[in-house]
User: What shape does this take?
Amino acid sequence: MKRIFCCLLLVFSCVTLFAQSASDSLFQFLQANKKRSSLYLVVNDTVKARLNENKLMPLASTVKIMIAIEFAKQAGSHILSVDDKVAVHELDKYYIPNTDGGAHPQWIEYEKKSGNLQNDSVPLLDVARGMIIFSSNANTEYLQDLLGMDNVKNNIQLLGLDKHTAIFPLVASLFMYQNPKKIKEEKIIKGIEKLSEEQYCRYIYDMHNALKYDTLLKASFRPQDLSLAMQKEWSNRLPASTTKEYVHIANVLNNRKYFSEEAYAVIAELLESVMENPANQKWLKHAGMKGGSTLFVLTKTLYATLKNGERIELSYFFNDLTAQENEMLRHYMNSFELSILRDKTFRDKLANAFK
Assistant: This one.
């Protein structure tokens, strides 16, 4: 099943020897696996390091930044109210058990413990935070409907992104990979590979709409049909973009000039949960991030403005990972990011390796 990578409250603390070792380990993986990696680092609007920065790669849940932006725009323009209540059973229409690494149930449990779940309902802002912080796919698809699919997709053009494939509902896309008639898997995969992006998305939207009204459809889903081969094809067809494009998005979020002040306040609520930790407030003016993963993909985009005035944007993506590599890299990421934000010597090393 899909494993979503997220950080609840990432603590940016002092660089330790262990952290430095982890940073170096990820750096060495990048050097040794350039064909499977992409990286783009910008400091104070100057490109410091680049590796395959124009290569299209699956985004996994990092694409949810685009939905967060649309949510913030509409909230900032008072098209919707972040205080509106959403019934959990409405979100459940979009939830398929055992397909999100436990993200949605963990979010529900968190809302209960936090006292935000009242009369089976939660504030709309918490639904959006659940999409980003816990990476709930059910919340994501609910918000795509609420905000309007076309409005979300139009942000590709609004932000001037030249390399970004179609954004579509992730849960509904899993139905493409069902095999109730026990057809040869290779035949199904070859058939899917022949579909154009338009054909692929049309099927997904049909399934997405059916999920809301057909109570039997969700019950018919067969997780056992998602073999590794099927999951790999699904992963390959996820919305894709480049590290360069997502650093551009990070720059828009970091510089606080593109959207309204009200919209940026909502963006801070969604993407900048790291700032809820007092330790981070001592040296960061603001910082935000979103990551994502499948069994084969690991992606991350982050931005930060330090108290000393430095502005840093970073995206780094991996694809075609083994399960062991995926697990290993996830343990290195926090230290790697911290070294980039706080250690100029490490940034220089990265810059020299990936000019």
